[in-house]
Structures are given as C-alpha cells and as structure tokens.
Design brief:
Two copies of one chain form a homodimer.
Chain A (H helix, E strand, L loop, with lengths): L12 H14 L8 E2 L2 H8 L3 H13 L3 E4 L3 E4 L6 H21 L4 H10 L1
Antiparallel strand pairs in A: 1-3, 2-3
Helix pairs in contact in A: 1-3, 2-3
Chain B binds a DNA duplex (30 and 30 nucleotides) through helix 2 and helix 3.
Chain lengths: 118, 118
Amino acid sequence: MLIEIDFRDKRPIYEQIVGRIENLMIQGIIKPGDTIPSVRSLAMELSINPNTIQKAYSRLEKDGYIYSVSGRGSFASNISSLLPGKKQEVLDKLKDIVLEASDIGMEKDELIKYIGEM
Amino acid sequence: MLIEIDFRDKRPIYEQIVGRIENLMIQGIIKPGDTIPSVRSLAMELSINPNTIQKAYSRLEKDGYIYSVSGRGSFASNISSLLPGKKQEVLDKLKDIVLEASDIGMEKDELIKYIGEM
DNA sequence: TAAGTGTACTACGAGTGATAGTACACATGA
DNA sequence: TCATGTGTACTATCACTCGTAGTACACTTA
C-alpha cells in the first residue's frame, strides 16, 4: 500500500492523498509517465468514496503533478519544472518559523544548532 | 488598535484573536496582571459577535495565558512557565520543515545558510 | 460489445465557524 | 440601593466544507 489514510490526521482525506502522491513523485517512487491508480480502484482499496479520490486527482492535475486521459487513466507528469517553486515554498515556511522563534526570544543560532544536530 | 482581524486570513476569527493576544503577551506588550479588553467591548471594537470573543478568551484561559474573574474582567497571567513548551513547539515545526526539505532534495546546509542570511 | 476509465452533476448528513438573542450571577461606582 | 459592566452559559440559526451516495455520459481498450 503506497497510499494510506490516517484518520487521526486533521487534514481532509483528499488533501492527504494529494500530499502523499506529491511526495511519492518527488521522491521518484512514482516516475513521469507511470500510471496512477484509477479513481475507482483507489477508492475501493482505501474504502472511501470515489468522489474523494476524484477531488484529489483534480487538484493534482490542476497543480501539474498528473494528467488524466478520459477512458484511459491518470498518469504522472514530469515535475522537474515544479521543484524550484517547491523549494521556495519550503524557504517561505522556514522564514515564518524563524520569525515565530524570534517572537519568543529564540536566537537564530539555537535553530541552526538544532538543525545541525538532527 | 492592538488587535485586528484579517478577513483574508483563512484561520477562524477566534483563532486569530488567540494568536494575536498570545503574541502581545510573549512580546511583553501585555504584561502579567494587565487588563484584557472585555468580551463586549472588544466585540464592539472589532464589529464581531461577543460569542466569538468569548470563545477566544476561553481558549486563552484554558491554555494558561489569561484568567477571568466573573463581574470584574479578564487579566493576563504570568506566562514565563509556558515558554519552554512554546520553544519545543517551534522546534517541532522546524523539524517538519527540515524533513519536508529533505524530501525534495534540499540539504540542511541550504536551510542553515538561508536562516543565517535572514 | 463489455468492462474499465475520467468526468460531471445533484443530493444528503455531519461538523465547524460565526451570528443572534437571551439569561444569570457577580463586582463596581454613583 | 441600583444601574452598569463584567464573565458565563445556554439555544437557535445560517453558511461553508468535507465526505458520502447515486447517477449519468463519453471515452478507450480488450
């Protein structure tokens, strides 16, 4: 099972699926051109409604991760061009954390030290 | 106006208020013992329902930031004992970011460099 | 042709956020 | 004392999102 759902997770199911598939593609486990499980089969496998899967796939297609062909299935796109944007997103989040840390009197060095020791 | 609401913010109003007051206390702008605006006056000032303010204040009291006295008002608690927990929260978030960065092939050094240059 | 595929649509229930209104007990100051 | 302001506790209603459920249609493939 490459894709699983955590019902304790506060995020909506469709968002978990989006994140999981994005992750599998970024890690190269799903490669460009690979077939993505069909809406109905994945719904069956996860015991959730096909509409929920469709919602996730629509989002993935809109964001450029997959492309869907009516009657044939859904396939992984080449996401190499998306990586710079993803990197910037991470840096933006990191910036928020650093500002939050600053609010409670934590110095940059403390954060850097923590990262280094991970 | 120390407290404002951003209606473009996706977070619920009560959560914005909680965050804002926490922030003012952490920064020392609101000091232990200070009076917090009354439920009704803040509701009037922000043009929102008193129940929304009450919900925010209930959360703040539950989390130890303020204490409320029936008939008198709400007051800022001494939050110095809460700081270690807040620091740990920040570090936990930082950890998530680092893992996310790792997923898309970013090295720790890249993050550390970014923090250093902020 | 039959089966599997993506896609679109409506309808319903549950949960949450926010509003609206009412009510009660308490503290304070005129 | 009494009016006012305070926190607190309800109920009711509305809007929105998430998820489920069912149906339908056009397409591709074996």
